[in-house]
Amino acid sequence: MNILFQYSWIPLLFAYYCIFYWMSKKNNDLGGHWFWVVYIFGAICPFWVIVSRISKNLILDGLIYDLTMFSSFIGTMIYLGAGAKFNIFQWIGLAFIIVGFVVMRSQVK
C-alpha cells in the first residue's frame, strides 16, 4: 500500500469534522432537531475504525488523527466566529494542547 493511499483519509477527516462542528454550532445556536442531526452524523462514519485498520504505525496515525480533528474543530470554530468568544484562559488552553501535541510527537518513533 503506497503512502499516498495510506494517508488519503486526512483530507476526508478534516472535511468531516468541519461539517460536524458546523452542525454542532447549529445545535448550540438553534437546538431542536439539530441534536439528532449531530448525533446521527457523528455515528455515521467511525473514521478511527477505518484508520486503525489501514494503519502501519498506530501511534503516529493516532496522533495525526487527533491533530487533524483538533485543527478542523478549532479552525471551523474561528471561521464561524465562535472563536471570538474565547477568553484568555481558553486561548492559553489551546496553546497547552498544541505544546502537548509537539511533546507527544517528539516521543513517537
Which tags fit this structure?
109 residues; mainly alpha
Q: Which secondary structure elements does this structure contain, and how are they paired or packed?
A:
Blueprint: H1 3-6, H2 9-30, H3 34-44, H4 47-54, H5 58-79, H6 88-107
Could you characterize what this model shows?
By secondary structure, this protein is mainly alpha-helical. It has one domain (3-107). The chain is 80% helix and 0% strand. The protein has six helices and no strands. It has helices spanning 3-6, 9-30, 34-44, 47-54, 58-79, 88-107. Helix 2 (9-30) packs antiparallel against helix 3 (34-44) and helix 2 (9-30) packs across helix 5 (58-79). It is flat, with a radius of gyration of 16 Å. The protein starts with a helix and ends with a helix. The model has no long low-confidence stretch (mean pLDDT 86).
Q: Which range does the strand content fall in?
A: under 5%
Instruction: Name the structural class.
Output: mainly alpha
How many domains? 1
- The count of β-strands is 0
Tell me the major beta sheet: none
Secondary structure tally, helices: 6
Helix content class? over 70%
- The radius of gyration is 16 Å
Shape: flat
First-residue to last-residue Cα separation: 21 Å
**Oligomer kind:** single chain
Order of secondary-structure elements: HHHHHH
The pLDDT mean sits at 86
Low-confidence stretches: none
In brief:
By secondary structure, this protein is mainly alpha-helical. It is 80% helix and 0% strand.
